[in-house]
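Sequence design from tokenized structure. All designs in this work follow the same two-part layout: the structure record, then the generated sequence. An example of the structure record is given first.
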């Protein structure tokens, strides 16, 4: 081999040909990271394979590969193949995509360094130790108190941080026989949730599901399955059994979950079942830990990976099964750079590896539902909760007739706490059970308007209203993050300001006022700003140290809190009117998921749904617990309007500070696309150019084009044409392609 195809980690399309120096000839392997000259610099590249001899005049100009950076290819062949698919499908430069599939530490043009096999060191108090014996050793006393205060086991680095000189004191405590040291390759940022062990017996439905999936696994061929199991049907146990079998067969397993910090319980279950043989992949890990987990997979020492969407690139060996838990969850779509949908790539990866793929959800996406209807995916259903626990009862609170109660003493209104809701909360608290209140808007008030001139407070850089955050007394823009002090009066006319539009912060305040005896916490991005506080809050709720949890969609995730018997949706309508064709589906999913948090323990659950618009399909169908009917109707509507999954879509976003330039470029790209469109009979449509629903963000004007067609193949020519024309666009205007876009805002 004298010439090589190389992908360079630069935002450039295409593969490049490099000359192969004699001494490297016998050492090149596909997937290897290499160092190559590029322009006047050198850069990271990937060897893809041998290239044919170019024409002599070209050959003379080719530069040689400078160095091979790893003896064993960093990326295994199957991951390279998956990245190639993704780069092509999502129209992203291959070299940059390959780089995105690497863990931190391997993304520079340096030699591979093994992650230090450093372990986390813990100091554990021996059972039954008491502090009294240390009365005359105050420093050791302090160290041991700390260890006991954090549950009997403290991470040494954290301890040393909290108490100066702690390492020495701990050594003294070890000598005294009060403390032992432990080493563990444990992950930071994620405390294990409530680890649970194997249940005695599977439910009959779990038995069938496990049987079906294991049979498919053993065939060792591509087998896509939807596990449609109602909330609380025990889907996790099914995944665990299938993974167990895969590992027994010597095959690898990859589990994708929406957000690890939000669902520590799930990771806890995997860790308690498979111990140290789980590699974790998520962003709360330190870089060195991520690299260590990644290398353990690459070497085949660990064959099970659990992680968020980026785990789709994990180098799991001999892949036998891929699981995507909560497959409908929007977090599987990456919204920057390589804009991939990890659930879709999971199916592609399983296909390329001849593996079983299990998409699990109580509320499958319409895409997946459609695939089962068409027979492309097999369907496994679990319609009952474990232990014959009933599904929660679903009740409507019609806000058109249920007037809010005015608190006579204070003259204040609590508009989202209707009388039936208050009564239900009171009743639940009286039984010492727990309550979840769900409202998908954070902040205190989300719409502030002047009583005199009617002006509402807008972000000067974005086309959205500002939210008042009471805890910081600041106005905040939820799009660009801009913060400014809350004015006392209207900045235009000094009239008094009215705070309309209720967010979680205000709900929390009202709940505290209405139920002063209850222990209340709020779960949203403001209150749980770090993974640590988030995990703490979830753990405190699980330990029943809190009675009421008020929160945004963060409370709707797969939590399993047996003490929760009441779930209240404060305003089911809030996301319905968003100008997005998925608004209805998203509302149905969210409502069903949050309702599914009720009654998971021995006591039955109850769900109250407040709405001004209870006839709206997602709300009515959710109240009837009718996923089937909702999905069928919604599919029909999508078909009528040619939205996915009835069509395939590519959106083109054009943004820049100069509005005229943005509009000019938008029109130009549209006309380029129109020229390349196939005849009308092929069903390709172009929407726009038009301003995006949110026309300005961070001072940039945003326009969009949307291409829809019966298949991606039908869209190829117009999108190719746009991509080509993008090269000519002035630098002040940014054009972003989003293939299979998730959000239309
Ligand atoms: P889902 O993800 O389907 O909502 P989970 O997997 O969270 O449900 O399971 C719900 C609860 O039921 C968990 O507490 C789990 O430990 C428990 N569970 C699962 N399978 C069984 C079983 N066969 N017997 C008893 N409890 C089970
Ligand atoms: Zn803004």
């Amino acid at each position: 081999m004298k010439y090589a195809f190389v992908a360079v980690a630069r935002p450039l399309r295409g593969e490049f040909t490099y000359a192969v120096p004699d001494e490297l000839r016998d050492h090149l392997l596909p997937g290897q990271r290499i160092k190559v000259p590029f322009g006047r610099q050198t850069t990271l590249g990937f060897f893809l394979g041998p290239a044919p001899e170019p024409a002599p005049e070209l050959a003379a100009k080719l530069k040689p590969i400078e160095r091979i950076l790893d003896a064993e290819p960093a990326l295994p062949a199957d991951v390279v193949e998956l990245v190639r698919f993704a780069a092509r499908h999502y129209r992203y430069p291959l070299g940059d995509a390959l780089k995105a599939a690497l863990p931190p530490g391997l993304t520079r043009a340096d030699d591979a360094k093994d992650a230090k096999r450093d372990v986390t060191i813990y100091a554990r108090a021996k059972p039954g130790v008491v502090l009294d014996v240390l009365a005359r050793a105050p420093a050791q006393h302090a160290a041991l108190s700390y260890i006991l205060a954090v549950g009997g086991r403290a991470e040494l680095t954290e301890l040393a941080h909290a108490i100066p000189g702690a390492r020495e004191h701990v050594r003294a405590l070890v000598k005294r026989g009060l403390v032992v040291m432990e080493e563990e390759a444990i992950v930071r940022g994620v405390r294990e949730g409530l680890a649970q062990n194997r249940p005695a017996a599977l439910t009959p439905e779990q038995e069938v599901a496990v049987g079906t999936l294991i049979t498919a696994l053993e065939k060792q061929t591509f087998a896509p399955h939807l596990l449609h199991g109602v909330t609380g049907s025990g889907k996790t146990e099914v995944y665990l059994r299938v993974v167990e079998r895969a590992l027994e067969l010597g095959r690898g397993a990859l589990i994708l979950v929406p957000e690890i910090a939000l669902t520590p319980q799930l990771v806890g279950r995997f860790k308690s079942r498979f111990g140290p043989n789980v590699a974790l992949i998520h962003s709360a890990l330190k870089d060195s830990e991520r690299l260590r987990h990644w290398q353990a997979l690459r070497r085949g020492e660990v064959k099970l990976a659990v992680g968020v969407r980026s785990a789709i690139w994990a180098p799991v060996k001999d892949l036998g099964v891929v699981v995507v838990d909560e497959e409908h969850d929007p977090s599987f779509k990456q919204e920057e750079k390589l804009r991939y949908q990890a659930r879709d790539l999971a199916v592609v990866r399983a296909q390329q590896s001849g593996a079983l793929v299990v998409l699990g959800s109580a509320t499958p996406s319409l895409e997946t539902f459609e695939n089962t209807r068409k027979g492309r995916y097999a369907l496994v259903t679990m319609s009952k909760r474990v232990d014959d626990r009933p599904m929660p009862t679903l009740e409507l609170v019609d806000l058109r007739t249920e007037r809010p109660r005015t608190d006579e003493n204070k003259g204040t209104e609590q508009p989202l706490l209707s009388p039936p809701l208050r009564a239900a909360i009171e009743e639940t608290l009286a039984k010492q059970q727990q309550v979840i209140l769900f409202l998908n808007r954070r902040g205190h008030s989300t719409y502030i308007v002047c009583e005199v001139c009617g002006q509402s407070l807008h972000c000067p850089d974005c086309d959205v209203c500002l939210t008042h955050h009471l805890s910081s007394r600041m106005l905040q823009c939820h799009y660009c993050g801009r913060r400014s002090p809350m004015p006392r009066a209207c900045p235009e006319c000094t009239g008094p300001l009215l705070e309309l539009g209720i967010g979680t912060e205000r709900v929390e305040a009202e709940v505290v006022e209405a139920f002063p005896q209850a222990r209340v916490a709020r779960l949203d991005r403001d209150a749980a700003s770090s993974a640590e506080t988030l995990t703490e809050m979830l753990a405190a709720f699980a330990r029943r140290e809190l009675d009421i949890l008020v929160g945004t969609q963060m409370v709707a995730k797969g939590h399993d809190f047996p003490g929760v018997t009441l779930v209240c949706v404060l305003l089911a309508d809030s996301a319905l009117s968003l100008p997005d064709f998925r608004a209805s589906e998203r509302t149905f999913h969210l409502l069903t998921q949050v309702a599914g948090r009720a009654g998971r323990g021995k006591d039955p659950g109850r769900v109250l749904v407040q709405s001004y618009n209870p006839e709206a399909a997602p709300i009515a169908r959710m109240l009837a617990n009718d996923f089937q009917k909702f999905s069928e109707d919604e599919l029909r509507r999508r078909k009528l309007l040619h939205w996915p999954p009835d069509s395939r879509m590519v959106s083109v976003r054009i943004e820049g500070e100069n509005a005229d330039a943005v509009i000019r470029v938008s029109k130009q790209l549209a006309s380029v696309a129109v020229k390349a469109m196939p005849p009308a009979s092929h069903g390709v449509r172009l929407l726009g150019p038009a301003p995006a629903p949110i026309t300005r963000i961070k001072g940039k004007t945003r326009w969009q084009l949307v291409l829809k067609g019966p298949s991606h193949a039908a869209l190829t020519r117009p999108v190719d044409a746009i991509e080509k024309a993008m090269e000519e666009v002035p630098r002040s205007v940014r054009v972003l392609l989003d293939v299979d876009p998730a959000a239309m805002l």
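Residues 648-739 form a domain with the Alpha-Beta Plaits fold (CATH 3.30.70.600). We note this feature because it recurs in several other targets discussed in the main text.
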